[in-house]
Amino acid sequence: MRCSTALSLLALCALTSAITPSPCLAQVDSQTKQLSHDIFQQLIEINTTDSVGSVTAASEAMQQRFLDAGFPKEDIYLGGPNNLKKNLVVRIHGTGAKKPILFIGHLDVVEARREDWTTDPFKFVEKDGYYYGRGTQDMKESDAILVTTFIRLKKEGYKPDRDLILALTADEEGGKSNGVDWLVKNHRDLINAEYVVNPDGGGVDMEQGKAVAMDVDATEKLYGDYQLIATNPGGHSSLPVPDNAIYHIADALQRLQNYTFPFELNAITRAYFEKMSTLESGQTAADMKAVTAATPDKAAIDRLSQNAEYNSTMRTTCVATRLAGGHANNALPQMAQANVNCRILPGHSLEEVRQDLIRIVNDPKVTVRYVDSAGQISDTAPDRKALPPAALSPEVMQPLEKLVATMWPGIPVIPTMATGASDGVFTNAAGMPTYGISGIALETNDVRAHGKDERLPIESYYRGVDFYYQFIKALSSGA
User: Fold this and answer.
1) Which residues fall within 8 angstroms of residue 79, CB to CB, at 6 or more apart?
2) Domains, the chain, with CATH or none
3) By CB count within 10 A, which of 18, 82, 292, 437 is most buried?
4) Closest CA to 227 of 386, 425, 376
5) What's the Cα-to-Cα distance from 289 to each of 274, 283, 285, rounded to whole Å?
6) What is the pTM assigned to this prediction?
7) Which runs of consecutive H residues, i.e. helices, occur in 408-457?
């Protein structure tokens, strides 16, 4: 049975989704299903980590698929700053009635050690209704979906009312050569668009098999790393002194752990809590209403802050992620250091937070320095701020809401602030409003991106294939 906008079928979907799995499952023809499976497997099994992998290998593999599908060479660009970090840009030409839409997806993945996993992280494993492998959630599943969709549209001879551009890029997960940043600075003409859709954000939240909300990331936090370092002349460990570099760092981290950044909402996070208050119940719903009041209730803020997701939505967060110190077991440490990773609310700068950390640490023996994306350390941080939220364009939201009502009847579309960070920071800064929209549905308690045994429900993947095919057509059909 195919999903339809017919009222009778929508009513059936809405009724049955609450008590049984929805009959409106993804309807993907066998040829498309096989293509999307093969592309997904191919991407997972190409190692694109920064340490030993190659984004170029993945870009070249997808370039060949586009060439085999009939894309002209002149509509495909492969390039980057070095031989391992080449990005791929592909274009479907439209009528030109409207300005282009850019879709972005990073091909690199975070590191994964075989000994930590129950499967090989760089093998595409199907097991117990899931696809396992590094990148199955972040974000090779969406890369594969976008490649599949562009090939599908090309083979159909689809003529959109605007150009559709796909950029598959390097180094969102780390490294020195971020692909979106590089394209903006070196080949802006290839990716210039009215707005950007980034499936590395948003998505469908599931609770015990039932879809409860579609999130749309309309803004995001700013990523920042800081080095806390203490030095000391050292000496023999048989003559301990209180002025120990490791103790200074330990005390600094204890102060950071005990510190809470101020509460703050913006237009998107306020709308988020207002919408969520209608979906929650009891004390949680009341607290969500209370924090959006003209004078937010402190007790409500404190209760919501016990939830890590709500806490990170309401304030800047900083957490220690790495430690190093000492040079010998029988010597006082001459150096100790920690990396502190911060996710900064829009409107606040990297340097502002560095100054905050200096005040929080409150120790002249501990120096706080900024660490950039290339690992370079400096005494000051840039004054760059996370940009204010993009306007929720009806041109994007209306087609999305209609499609969500068809595929996941009855769930709300909720604007959210990404508490992490994405390549949208570069496209937003370039004047292209960016929306994090994914068709992938995940259980809220089974998010394994960056973690061990990363996996994706098989049904969720093929529904995502169906979603993006319909969504891109809705955005570009001129209807």
Assistant:
1) 86, 87, 187
2) 23-218+392-476 (3.40.630.10), 220-378 (3.30.70.360)
3) 437
4) 376
5) 6, 10, 6
6) 0.84
7) 424-429
Which residue, chain included where needed, has tokens 């120096």?
367
CA dist 157 and 386 (Å) reads 40
Tokens 């840039």 map to which residue?
A: 382
Q: What is the CA radius of gyration of the chain?
A: 24
Residue 196 has pLDDT above 80, yes or no: yes
Neighbouring-strand partners of residue 229: 337, 367
Distance CA 43, CA 37 (A): 10
> Mind listing the pLDDT tens digit for each residue in 423-466?
998 999 899 999 999 999 999 899 999 999 999 999 999 999 99
Angle (nearest 5°) at CA 58 between 52 and 59: 125
Look up residue 26 and give its two tokens. Answer: 């993804």
Single-letter residue type at 44? I
pLDDT at 479: 62
Q: Nearest Cα to 332, choosing from 232, 430, 249, 427?
A: 232
Reading the block at residue 302, the tokens are: 């404190």
For residues 394, 196, 193, 405, the Cα torsion angle rounded to the nearest 10 degrees is -40
Q: Distance between CA 133 and CA 46 in Å, rounded?
A: 11
Q: Which amino acid is at 377?
A: I
Mean pLDDT, residues 209-226: 93
Beta bridge partners of 377: 371
> Rounded to 5 degrees, what are φ and ψ at 121?
-65, -20
- How far apart are alpha carbons 269 and 313 in whole angstroms? 7
β-bridge partners, 369: 227
* pLDDT at position 322 over 60: yes
